[in-house]
Amino acid sequence: MDHQKDIRSSYNNSHVLLLPYPTQGHINPILQFAKRLVSKGTKATLATTTFVHNSMHATATAPASNLNIDFETISDGYDRGRSTTEIKVYLQTFRHVGSRTLAELIMRLRDSSRPVDAVVYDAFLPWALDVAKDFGLVGAVFFTQSLAVNTVYYHVHKGLLRLPLSDKTVSLPTLPPLEISETPSFVYSPESYPGFYYMVVNQFSNIDRADLVLFNSFHELENKTVEWMEKLWPVKTIGPTVPSIYLDERLENDKDYNINLWKPKDDTCISWLNDKSFGTVVYVSFGSLSAIEAEQMRELAWGLKRSNHYFLWVVRESEETKLPLELFKQEAFEKGLIVNWCPQLAVLAHKSVGCFVTHCGFNSTLEALSLGVPLVAMPQWTDQTTNAKYVEDVWGVGIRARPGENGIVRREVVENCIKELMEGEKGKEIKKNVIKWRDLAREAVSQGGSSDKNIDEFVAKLSS
Ligand code: UDX
């Protein structure tokens, strides 16, 4: 892979405006995709909402100016922060105010030296396609979640999968049979999340008009589903969007730039990891949104302690009060470091990390798989339940920590899963699998790999 060479050797006159849904798990992959476009000589502008723009902290080993990405804002109608918890109300306001402010931005950029040719918009914001089409621009929808998960949502949208689910298992083209609890939570329990249910099903409302359908996945990872979906739409897998510097040893001295909506209180975790031996640390994180029940936090904390391994645990500030204080008073907890946010890619790429206890957000799953880190899957909601199924049964890159009474994963289950991965025979097999996937992921984004070619084709489409 030689992205630096790409920058020098290719220049095209096209300009892509990218519009993420304003949460961490959606900003990250679109920002990384923007970097890839820039490496192909395309100009990229990332439009975030005003509130996100004001909350952004860059974690950078390189200045933003090195990035060659422009940052602009549009409004979701909540410039001072979201004052509604009703997701449907939020989406409707965003649609109304966002359509207008996106159109104003496109008009402003039209008068610049490089007008916009294409809008890449998050699948949760389908109205952006209508705006792009009003201006005669190429419109490409960007899915941050897997093809498998979106196959489920598509079948619900089409009325081909009727809710509430009545059969014991769900059988859909190219997917393994899914138990009800392995379908996304918005599908097995739509009444608990009416707004989110509307959001995921509405992704397909105008998709037939999209010029391209992009997925942060790679062909080899979901090949049968890609081939099935290609019969419906012009699908292009462009992932994993993990930056090249983490995938290619030759680039390890290169610089990176990322955007975070949280600022770590301190910067200790990498130096803490530096002191540990190869593969000895359990990394624990539940992403940017999940709220864990206090009882689950306690069981997890005890499970980590009982595993007797070093651990680095991300507990966001909003979750801190749930930590079981009784444990911290004990000396035995000294093997752990708790931080409120960390540079996750650098952590997963660190030699001392041996496994990842994760909620199976799709970014975290793809990042771990691309960096060769086995997973203990503890899905919470949304697509994570289906991702966890794939982690264990389809890709063989981890084990599920199964909940017991009251839906809580008990301490002995956490302990056993960690020990199994870090010390057991099954762990060895899983490590072999994850290395196989890591290599395939690297190939996909290397020059001439499946995702790299797809990005080239996208860029060529813009130039023509
Ligand atoms: C949510 C859904 O769970 C996910 O499946 C969907 O694809 C996007 O929206 P989230 O719960 O935040 O995302 O999880 P995840 O997809 O894993 O994204 C979290 C991102 O934040 C990752 O890119 C991860 O690297 C980053 N992160 C997380 C950090 O940089 N530091 C941290 O301490 C924790």
UniProtKB/TrEMBL annotation:
Family per record: Belongs to the UDP-glycosyltransferase family.
EC category: transferase
Keyword Glycosyltransferase: yes
Domain of life of the organism encoding this protein: Eukaryota
Native organism taxonomy: Eukaryota, Viridiplantae, Streptophyta, Embryophyta, Tracheophyta
This protein's UniProt keywords: Glycosyltransferase, Transferase
This enzyme's EC code(s): 2.4.1.-
Recorded GO MF terms: quercetin 3-O-glucosyltransferase activity; quercetin 7-O-glucosyltransferase activity
Record-linked Gene3D superfamilies: Glycogen Phosphorylase B
GO biological process, one term: monocarboxylic acid metabolic process
Protein name per Swiss-Prot or TrEMBL: Glycosyltransferase
Designated gene of the protein: TorUGT6
